[in-house]
Amino acid sequence: xxxxxxxxxxxxxxxxxxxxxxxxxxxxxxxxxxxxxxxxxxxxxxxxxxxxxxxxxxxxxxxxxxxxxxxxxxxxxxxxxxxxxxxxxxxxxxxxxxxxxxxxxxxxxxxxxxxxxxxxxxxxxxxxxxxxxxxxxxxxxxxxxxxxxxxxxxxxxxxxxxxxxxxxxxxxxxxxxxxxxxxxxxxxxxxxxxxxxxxxxxxxxxxxxxxxxxxxxxxxxxxxxxxxxxxxxxxxxxxxxxxxxxxxxxxxxxxxxxxxxxxxxxxxxxxxxxxxxxxxxxxxxxxxxxxxxxxxxxxxxxxxxxxxxxxxxxxxxxxxxxxxxxxxxxxxxxxxxxxxxxxxxxxxxxxxxxxxxxxxxxxxxxxxxxxxxxxxxxxxxxxxxxxxxxxxxxxxxxxxxxxxxxxxxxxxxxxxxxxxxxxxxxxxxxxxxxxxxxxxxxxxxxxxxxxxxxxxxxxxxxxxxxxxxxxxxxxxxxxxxxxxxxxxxxxxxxxxxxxxxxxxxxxxxxxxxxxxxxxxxxxxxxxxxxxxxxxxxxxxxxxxxxxxxxxxxxxxxxxxxxxxxxxxxxxxxxxxxxxxxxxxxxxxxxxxxxxxxxxxxxxxxxxxxxxxxxxxxxxxxxxxxxxxxxxxxxxxxxxxxxxxxxxxxxxxxxxxxxxxxxxxxxxxxxxxxxxxxxxxxxxxxxxxxxxxxxxxxxxxxxxxxxxxxxxxxxxxxxxxxxxxxxxxxxxxxxxxxxxxxxx
Amino acid sequence: xxxxxxxxxxxxxxxxxxxxxxxxxxxxxxxxxxxxxxxxxxxxxxxxxxxxxxxxxxxxxxxxxxxxxxxxxxxxxxxxxxxxxxxxxxxxxxxxxxxxxxxxxxxxxxxxxxxxxxxxxxxxxxxxxxxxxxxxxxxxxxxxxxxxxxxxxxxxxxxxxxxxxxxxxxxxxxxxxxxxxxxxxxxxxxxxxxxxxxxxxxxxxxxxxxxxxxxxxxxxxxxxxxxxxxxxxxxxxxxxxxxxxxxxxxxxxxxxxxxxxxxxxxxx
Lengths: 743, 268
Ligand SMILES: Cc1cc2nc3c(=O)[nH]c(=O)nc-3n(C[C@H](O)[C@H](O)[C@H](O)COP(=O)(O)OP(=O)(O)OC[C@H]3O[C@@H](n4cnc5c(N)ncnc54)[C@H](O)[C@@H]3O)c2cc1C
Known about the structure:
The complex is a heterodimer of chains A (743) and B (268). Chain A is 25% helix and 26% strand.
């Protein structure tokens, strides 16, 4: 019998910045991304897309494509065995267009061929005769014609309340793209019995599986969706794109079929961030307290529903920001147009309104002659208050004041313009220190965590014991954010063991983990892992009437009563489905408890601007963020730095430029992402306040960095230039030339 | 796809005469292949061809890469070289490729216009020299015949002592020019102003040049008038990258700033 020498503390538990298990393989190029998958005998798929934003399909001739040697299948709408529709909220989008194409790049036919090049040539050889129709490309016109996915109305408090200081503004947000570095890719393998295994880029395999089943009229047990290696997502992988196509081709040909989108196709093949137009009116008393906020929010959902209804709702719910106000009226419209479909992107509606309400707060501060942070402090929402829009009482920690105070206390840490060599214009040598004006700007944000409005939001996880340690089984998708790290950390701490790892399993082997979106997996799958590990440990200890479990086994006092190998042999495991506190749909005034939890963040941007040329250098973006409990500080910093960069991108360069429904810049030559030379320095304060229902009090951290970084940068540019700048991205001409009149 | 590696210029010229597509650094050509705009069946690789990689104060071989020009080229061309793409692109891309592509946004081209450089074109039957304004004829169009290679850029032996380049782009690096500009100035005040991305080909702002060349120490008002003339002379378009109005404005601002830099160096 072994005697215990002394209890070792758990290595790699929560609170440590453990190194990601996939980090080194990714750096060495050894990690298998979806693009790298290969099976013997596989065919390659490709897609024929509409060159028109709106047209009637007169005829499709697949003959010329089929005539190419090595082509195995060319399929159109008529070849789909089921209803042939999909959609995250409701199935309105054809797998392949039938009579009509409704956006530029909509899939019309798919082909499978021996190799990639042949497949692409065949896709181009499909002859489609179109009768062009007038595209509806203006969201305001769509609103007027009642072409809408959803209308929202929020009315709260005394609608007659009036303040003595009033500011009005009109704001626009351009169409941002998630631009994940890994394009869409997948492989479908037929099982020989009419079913199929799908391995494809995704954020939510169970909902992919469900949509494949429904669109193709299959039985649920016939389709298994497997998590794969994914290079970024940011919302672009919530909707299916190539998934149903791959399954259709695999089932039709009886061969495995692989597809990888090229960069340009990726830009048309996934949904984008909704462009928005927003009209705002803020009224305050002479002390700066918000008395009334009115907003009209118009988002362009594009041709199909995707998640427009939920994005619009979020935009409306967070239309006032993290501020108290007892008289609110918000009207929202999600327009249906012939523009590219828009859906989920990091921040999900909260981004667009944050640019507007924070711009308004700065205007109000200037109208009052008040410091912008002081105005925000006076209106800061806190636990126990009601959300200004929905009236929901906030019952989890909400450190808005703490965020403001942290930002205010952070040293500015910037040198004279140009002393570090980083002037606006960069290597282009446009700008000398004498041309530069510096600006500082602040912004705060609030967003919900997890799914809302009564959605049954849950995650399942399984913890079992293996010779290598504890195994967490899940279908929760890792897109690069660090889920594989944090779930293992939670399992280690909770079980009391040092060895734990995450293994992904397919949809037939575990229930849904929900989507890797809405900043939810650390809280939801983390919650499930925590609860499964807790119960497993408890059951084991009870079974052995023991008092501790560690890497060696189960202990009663100093005595090892069962070794780890014995536990493994006995097959201990625990599966838990974790739900967050229930939410409800809104009433007819948009009131109710629609959200399970909230997170706030604040940003301070420092920019150097060359006003004459309109060039901007974002020097610093410092932040304070409400994280609940920092389970892996380094991972959080990764989210913060990346999220800030995405927010900087929206502030000064990232936009899909549309011309009558067509994307003009679907390449990395012209869709500009910030490079490392555009990246600001970042100092981050993580605010930990326990009390959320997430594991150990953790909150989701993925989206907040992106939300208020954009308005902070714009506020800083305004500070430097005195320009109004009511649109993002801010373009050089917006700064350098006379402004167009605001609407 | 067939690729040949010629051992000398003669073999390369024979290949080109035979209809093969020249490939230097591939940083333009492979982009076009990637976008499906070109599908060359037969390629002649110039990368290892020492015959066209010579470098002297009056002659820069077509095969010289940006990385070398960045370090050793004449001042304004070196400044331009520094802005081409990223280190990886500069390690591969050549000045010959830039000149052969003849994009309106080619960052190496305004320098050639500013110093009245010539392009040496060579075929099996010999070489000819074309002045830059004879060579560039339109958007991605040149006077090069399909059996010719660009073999060198030929420069005068008395380049202006003061020469400055700058480029406006929407990002701090790795960006296509919205406007780029070179200003040169000699001891006697003779000034040239060349611009890129503001017309189908690189161009000179001749009226602005003429006006400023006679000014020894221009006043504020003269500098402003100079910028205005440049803005007036350029012929930019509005596209998804920028607007005509902004390009006009930025062209004037850049030209003035570069002139001021030349004047400051003159005074120093
Ligand atoms: C990411 C990226 C960033 C870039 N950034 C910039 C930038 O900032 N500024 C800029 O100006 N350019 C930029 N470019 C474009 C490109 O790098 C330059 O134009 C470069 O100089 C091309 O040279 P190359 O040797 O790669 O040409 P290649 O691609 O090899 O050739 C270009 C064309 O010229 C022909 N050709 C090549 N050599 C000869 C010759 N000797 N005689 C006749 N024809 C010839 C080829 O057939 C081809 O049509 C960028 C490209 C990329 C991919």
